[in-house]
Amino acid sequence: MITTRRGFLQQLGAAAATARAADSPAQSRPITPFPYVDGLTLAGPMNDLAASGLSAFLVDVSRAERLETTDGSIKYWRSFDATSKSIAEMRTDLAREPLAFHATRGSEIAGAHRNGRTAVFFQVQGGGEIVGQNLDRLDALHALGLRVFQITHHNDNPWGGGAIEPKWSGLTALGRAGVERLHALGMIPDLAHVSDPTCRDVIAISRAIRKAVIVSHGGARALVDNARCTPDDVIRGVADSGGAMGVFMMTCWLTTDPMPTPASYVAQIRHIVRVGGIDAVGIANDYAIGGDAGAQSVGNDNARAVQNILPWWNSVAKSQVLGFDTPPAHVVIPELNNPRRAFLIHDALDRAGFRSAEIEKIMGGNWIRVLRQSLG
Predict the structure, then answer these.
(1) Mean pLDDT across the stretch 294-301?
(2) What angle do the packed helices 262-276 and 341-351 form, to 10 degrees?
(3) pLDDT by residue (tens digit) across 223-269?
(4) What pTM was estimated for this model as a whole?
(5) Which residues contact 325 (CB under 8 A, 6 or more apart)?
(6) Collapsing DSSP states into helix, strand and coil, what is residue 304?
């Protein structure tokens, strides 16, 4: 997903001022039975964060610009300067925020849960285009507090192949060196949006040095045959590395059912558990904290909400990318498109027969394990 950070920073600053003025315990996030952790969410108003119950989440802090293309296709590109500025701005604002804080270690989540706050871990999408040929930029990004690094976003870049391409390619020599540098610095490679060959290359490098990789947000290709979704062998590879995969809210990549429901979401979780084990799955989002505002504005009517992504989808379809020949029918699970989705997912898992220990792992425990083992 593409979003602007400027609006979030303005909302965050305003919400922080309101919270400080109120100085009320009601401003704290509700205490949940155990930490809820989201693998990738976009930013949003802090009153939504307070309602979410999230003890931690990964947030995309990259800043994208739309490219001019000769064929009219819709593509985006991220630069190092724009992303560095975005990170610095978010750090400044989080330093003033009573409800949330910038986190760099997985061990910080326990205190966040205990104190009703939210630990925010920085992630970038399209990392290979941000860093480009200059791997020293990784040191600068790490110093700014970046801890999760998505190799590509949709399209190919100097590090390797993206998933939304008609022909897939793997890691370049630069990308291989970059993945090794990520692990040396203590940053986690993220395989969301990455081509199958690139995924396998990153997993092979990481397995050789016993380091975890993740898919921060995605769905299983076994259930939806689309390039954006993750094949079973990659899910197994992520699991074997000690990593995890977050199931996101983008329903066009979750189910082929005409009407998505919480059961569609649970089906994705069940599949990943079957393939990678109970330690391999978590929750994720890929919308703002409060949900997809576009869908909310039309009463979560998917037939209307899906119109927002059709221009991009149809642009990709012209390139004959896997799975884009069929237009999407929906983009959200109406019952879950609100800031309290984590509570509702918890309830859905309970109704589906998952045991309490399994639910704790899915709702946050697996992400906590990965972040603690990788970041301390």
Answers:
(1) 97
(2) 70
(3) 999 999 999 999 999 999 999 999 999 999 999 999 999 999 999 99
(4) 0.91
(5) 317
(6) helix
108 phi/psi in degrees, rounded to 5: -75, -15
* CA distance to 214, 284, 295, per residue, from 186 (Å): 14, 22, 37
Structure tokens at 191: 């395989």
pLDDT tens by residue, 97-119: 899 999 999 999 999 999 999 99
180: which residues sit within 8 A by CB, 6+ positions away? Answer: 205, 209
Give the three-class secondary structure for 288. strand
DSSP 22-73: H--GGGSPPPPSS-EEEEEEB---HHHHHHH-EEEEEEE---EEEPP-TT--
Quickly list H helices, 119-261. 127-131, 136-143, 173-185, 196-208, 232-241
Cα 43 → chain centroid: 11
Separation CA 241–CA 248 (nearest Å): 21
DSSP string of 322-348? Answer: TTTTS--S-S--GGG-STTHHHHHHHH
Burial code (b: 16+ CB inside 10 Å, e: under 16) for 63-78 equals: bbeeeeeeeeeebbeb
**Average pLDDT over the chain, rounded to an integer:** 91
What is the CB-side half-sphere exposure of residue 253 using CA atoms within 13 A?
26
Identify which of 273, 235, 259 has the alpha carbon closest to the alpha carbon of residue 336: 259
Is the pLDDT confidence value at 18 over 60? no
